[in-house]
Specification:
The chain is an alpha/beta fold. The chain has 2 domains: 126 residues, Urease, subunit C, domain 1 (Roll); 270 residues, Metal-dependent hydrolases (TIM Barrel), CATH 3.20.20. Helices cover 30% and strands 17% of the residues. The chain has 14 helices and 22 strands. The strands form 5 sheets. The chain has a 7-stranded mixed beta sheet. A 6-stranded mixed beta sheet has the order 3-2-7-20-21-22, with no helix packed on it. Strands 5-4-1-6 form a 4-stranded mixed beta sheet. Strand 15 and strand 16 form a beta hairpin. The chain starts with 22 loop residues before the first strand and ends with a helix. The N terminus is likely disordered.
């Protein structure tokens, strides 16, 4: 499908060549432009530097003599995937204990660079990372933009704002200070102060961890006051910065939407009141079903907690019904993988959310592809400039061997990705899959999986 001898190979620019001088011409195959228009025979797509210059029969005539040619015959040309919710600095963690207390800043940054390579090779050309270890998100983004390391486009938070209730990590979160991805705030004034500081430190997004776990309470509960939520949103918006929030209860969805949160992550068990608040506020939703679905479908293969499968299937079913109603009401749905955990390792599951939207919400494959591409522009703060194959958009393109409209699972199968073009440059897909060996001190080893009582030993 590519020019002989170049399939999967990155172009090697000379020292004096700049991205604006490069040209790539894609011909043949089927074009999915992700605008919602029907797929059609590819009329020709010309990329010049980091811009889609021509989409149409004139693309070949507009190409220079030195343009690289990619023949997509038999395949599909579409925008790169946009993962609106992942955690590139976590490194496939198996527990919060491991994440919070067994990480070194320098090593975490180096491993994050390798994670970026995995994501690119899986077809992710842009992503949003809401909260990062050691506040490294803005530095990682800046390193990619400066060409220090190769990676997808990045928008990022600094750390998640949590109250001392502790989010999903419970008592592992200290009463004050910082641990892992979390910055603890204990008053309305502190919430505003840290919002402003994170923006000062380079945050593209402010992340609120709105719900958390409490001993003796079922499910996650809202652990912020309405005034605190509103104060964070007002402070961020006054400085031109949007807000996203982790919400896993009906009450939290309503409270966050009413406070002005721009993207609601999960929005689990959203009820009618919450749906009305989301529609009224203009918020977007990123359900991030992939983590739940992976545990429900495949958790047994990796020794996940017994009994969790049915719990997460129930959450998916309950939430999907309301997500469909939101979608039908015009609320944008974004695709997120929650990559960074043992159940969602980097480079393996970034396309699965689209499959879940088809299977659980009843979206068409085309509608799901728009959620995984064009709608992701909201998370990138680049609406109208990324996520579609249209003239003037940024040059992030995939070529697939096959048609995801007939099998949406192709988006999640790296073997069927024949070309990834990021910022107008071809990504090298050859060579072994990036991996690293054990890092001393990173993993927590349990003494046992159960309690060795006398009766268990001898009965």
């Amino acid at each position: 499908m590519s020019t002989p001898g170049t399939s999967g190979k990155a172009s090697r620019a000379g020292d004096s060549e700049i991205a604006g001088d490069s040209e790539i011409l894609l011909t043949g195959g089927t074009l999915i432009d992700a605008t919602g228009a029907p797929a059609r025979p590819n009329p020709g797509v010309l990329l010049r530097g980091d811009s889609i210059e021509v989409v149409g029969p004139g693309a070949a005539d507009a190409a220079g003599a030195g343009a690289e040619h990619i023949d997509a015959t038999g395949g599909t040309v579409m925008p790169g995937l946009i993962d609106a919710h992942c955690h590139t600095t976590f490194d496939d963690v198996q527990s919060n204990d491991e994440l919070f207390f067994h990480r070194d800043p320098t090593m975490a940054a180096l491993v994050a660079g390798q994670n970026l390579t995995k994501m690119l090779r899986a077809g992710v050309t842009a992503f949003c990372d809401p909260d990062t270890l050691f506040s490294m998100g803005p530095s990682l983004r800046n390193a990619v933009e400066a060409g220090v390391v190769a990676g997808p486009r990045i928008t990022t938070g600094v750390q998640a704002l949590v109250t001392a209730v502790g989010g999903t990590a419970g008592r592992l979160i200290p009463d004050e200070g910082v641990v892992g991805y979390a910055q603890v705030v204990n008053s309305l004034d502190e919430a505003v102060m840290w919002t402003r500081r994170h923006i000062k430190y380079g945050a593209d997004w402010i992340k609120i961890h709105a719900t958390g776990l409490l001993p003796g309470r079922s499910g996650e509960v809202l652990c912020w006051s309405r005034d605190e939520l509103r104060a964070v949103c007002d402070a961020a918006h006054e400085l031109g910065t949007p807000v996203m929030a982790h919400c896993r209860s009906p009450e939290s969805v309503t409270a966050c939407a009413n406070a002005g949160v721009d993207i609601l992550l999960h929005a689990s068990f959203m009820d009618d009141e919450g749906l009305e608040a989301v529609i009224r506020s203009g918020s977007a939703l990123c359900p991030t079903f992939t983590f739940l679905a992976n545990l429900a479908d495949f958790g047994g293969a990796v020794g996940a907690g017994v009994g969790m499968e049915d719990i997460f299937r129930g959450e998916i079913a309950a939430t999907a019904k309301m997500m469909r109603l939101a979608y039908d009401a015009g609320v944008p749905l974004l695709c997120g993988s929650e990559a960074g955990f043992a159940l969602t390792p980097y480079g393996h599951w970034h396309g699965r959310e689209a499959e879940i939207l088809v299977n659980e919400l009843g979206l068409s494959p085309m509608e799901a592809i728009v959620c995984a591409t064009a709608n992701g522009a909201i998370a990138m703060r680049l609406e109208g400039r990324i996520g579609t194959i249209t003239e003037g958009c940024l040059a992030d393109v995939l070529v697939l061997d096959g048609n995801p409209l007939t099998d949406i699972r192709l988006l999640n199968d790296r073997r069927r990705i024949t070309e990834v073009i990021s910022r107008g440059r071809r990504v090298d897909l050859s060579g072994p899959w990036p991996a690293h060996g054990p890092i001393p001190g990173d993993k927590v080893r349990n003494w046992a999986d159960d309690i060795l009582t006398y009766e268990r030993a001898y009965d």
